[in-house]
Amino acid sequence: MRSTRLANGIRVLSQELPDFDSVTVGIWVENGSRYEAPEQAGISHFLEHLFFKGTERRTAAQIAEEIDAVGGVLNAFTGKEYTCYYAKVLREHLPLALDLLADLFTHSRFAEEEIERERSVIIQEISQAEDTPDDYVHELFNLAFWNGHPLSRPIAGTAASVSRFTRADFLAFREARYRPNRVLICGAGSLRHEQLAEAALQHFGDLRGAADRSDTGAPVACPGIAVHEKPLEQVHLCLGAPGISQTDPDRYAVHLLNLALGGGMSSRLFQEIRERRGKAYTVYSFLSSFLDAGYVGVYVGTSAAWVREVVEVICAEMDRLTREGLEPAELGRTKNQMKGNLLLGLETSDSRMSRIAKNEIYFGRDVPLDEVAAGIDAVTRDDIVRVAQRLFSPRVLGLTVLGDLRGERLDPGVLGA
Fold first, then answer.
1. 183 and 273 co-located in one domain
2. Is residue 48 flagged as an active site residue?
3. Cα separation of 28 and 246, whole Å?
4. 228 and 269 share a domain?
5. Edge-to-edge strand list for the sheet holding 398-403
6. In this predicted structure, what is the pLDDT of residue 410?
7. Predicted pLDDT at 216
8. Which residue stretches of the chain have pLDDT < 50?
9. Which of 206, 215, 218, 268 has its CA at a distance of 20 to 30 angstroms from the CA of residue 323?
10. Is residue 212 part of a domain?
11. Would you say 45 and 156 are in contact if contact means Cβ atoms under 8 Å apart?
C-alpha cells in the first residue's frame, strides 16, 4: 500500500494490483449519520443522493450514460461514520472514472427540482425499510439499545426529518463537513499510485478548509426488552450485548467468538436452532463496531410460539461460551474460517479499496494481512472465555421483538437476569 498527502490535507492511498483487469477508486469522507444533530437526521444520506443528480457539465442522465457505456459501476453509500463515492471500471477507463467522481464531488448543482424529486425517493426508501421486517428489527434494536445516542438513529433519517431539509441546509452541511482533512481518495487494482496522486492533485488540490469531527461520546447500553406488535407471519428478534470498538485489542477473539456462535452453517446457533430443532429458517450472529463502541447481536426469524424457546437457546449458548469457550478443534476450524473469509473477500478491486480506506479511518495506517493472520492465530481458548465473560452478562442484554406475539408474554427472566 502506498500513500501521499496533498498540501491541503487530502490523503491519497492505493494498492497496485497489476494482475487485476479492474480498478476501483473511492472518495471517502469521514462523515456519517453519527455526526448529525437530531434535527439533521438523515442529511448525510440525502446529500449523498444529491451528488448524482447533475453537475455544471453533466445531467443526471449523462452521468448514468457515461458509466454504463464502459460497463462500469458508479455508486455511493452512507454509513454511521463515513460516506463513500466510488467507481469501478476496466483499467483503460480509469481516466473517465476519475473525471466523473471529481465532477460529482466538486461541481454538483443541487438543483431545487432535483432535491424535491429525491426527497420523494428517500421517503419511499424509508417506507421500504419499514416494510422489510428482517431489516427493520435491526433499526428498532439500535433505537432501543443505544437510546438517545446518534449511533442509534437510522442512517436515512425519518420521513419527518427528510421533509424539512432545504437547499441551504445541504450547502451549509457540505461546506462544514466535506473538508480536505476529512477526505481520503483510495484506489485499488490495475493502476499506478503516481497516476492517482496526480489526478487527485489536479481535481481536488484547490479544496481548502478543515472540518472538526464532533465528539458525540460513546453510547451507553440500555438493556431490557422492547416489543413492537405488528401483524406479520413471523416474529423477528434481535438479541444483543455491548461489544467492541474497531480497534479493541480483543477484536480477533471477539470475531472468532461471533463466527462460532452464529457466523455460518456450522455455527452453534444455526445447528441448534435450525438443524436440530427446526425453529427458524434464518439465524445468525453479527458484530457492529465503531470508533469507540459496538455491540454483538443475534437475529432470528421464527414463529410466535417459539420465541421464548429461541431466546433461551441463544442465552444458553452465550452462557456456555462464558464457561467453556471453544474446544481446540472448534477453535481451529473457526480460525481457518475467519482467514478464508478474509482472503476470499479480497478477490475484487472494490473490496481492496474499501479495506484500505477503513484501515486508514480506524487505525491510521495499513494493517498487513500477515498481521491480521498472526492476531487470529494467537487467540487461545482462555481468550475466548475471557471475552465471552466480558460481553455476555445477562444484566446487559437487550432484546427487540417485532411481530405478532399472539398473546405470548416475555418477561426479563427470559434473558437469564
1. no
2. yes
3. 18
4. yes
5. 224-229, 398-403, 235-242, 294-302, 283-289
6. 86
7. 81
8. none
9. 218
10. no
11. yes
Residue in the structure block whose three cell numbers are 492505493? 14
Asked if residues 331 and 256 have their Cβ atoms less than 8 Å apart, the reply is yes
Provide the grid cell at 282. Answer: 434464518
- Do residues 284 and 312 both lie within one domain? yes
Distance separating the N- and C-terminal Cα atoms of the chain: 48
Residues spanned by the domain of 184: 2-204
Give the burial string for 150-188 (b: 16+ CB within 10 Å, else e): bbbbbbbbeeebbeebeeebbeebbeebbbbbbbbbbbb
Quickly count: other Cβ atoms within 10 Å of residue 324's Cβ: 12
Residue 305, Cα to own-chain centre: how many angstroms?
33
| pLDDT for the residue numbered 236 | 98
* Domain-ending residue, one of 204, 232, 260: 204
DSSP-derived secondary structure for 178-216: --GGGEEEEEEES--HHHHHHHHHHHHTT-----PPP--
Residue 200 lies in a domain: yes
pLDDT at site 43: 98
How far apart, in whole angstroms, are the C-alpha atoms of residue 346 and residue 358?
14
**405 and 289 in a common domain:** yes
In a domain, 217, yes or no: no
Burial (0-12, 13-18, 19+ Cβ within 10 Å), 147: middle
> Which grid coordinates belong to 244?
467492541
Closest by CA position to 154, among listed 177, 128, 182, 115 = 128
pTM: 0.95
Coil/strand/helix, residue 66: helix
Q: Please report the pLDDT score of residue 417 as a whole number.
A: 62
Cβ(15)–Cβ(356) below 8 Å = yes
Single out the residue in 172, 204, 236 at which a domain terminates. Answer: 204
Continuous segment of H or E residues that includes residue 12: strand 11-16
Any idea what the CATH number is for the domain that residue 327 is in?
Answer: 3.30.830.10
| CA–CA distance, 203 with 138 (Å, rounded to integer) | 39
| Strand intervals (E) in 79-231 | 83-90, 183-189, 224-229
- The cell numbers describing 407, all together, are 398473546
pLDDT for 394 equals: 87
Cβ-contact 398, 240 below 8 angstroms: yes
Query: Three cell numbers at 32?
Result: 456519517
Instruction: Quote the number of domains for the chain.
Output: 2
Q: How many residues does the chain have?
A: 417
Shared-domain flag, residues 249 and 373 = yes
With beta carbons less than 8 A apart as the criterion, state whether 246 and 289 touch. Answer: yes
What pLDDT score does 231 carry?
A: 95
Q: Is residue 214 assigned to a domain?
A: no
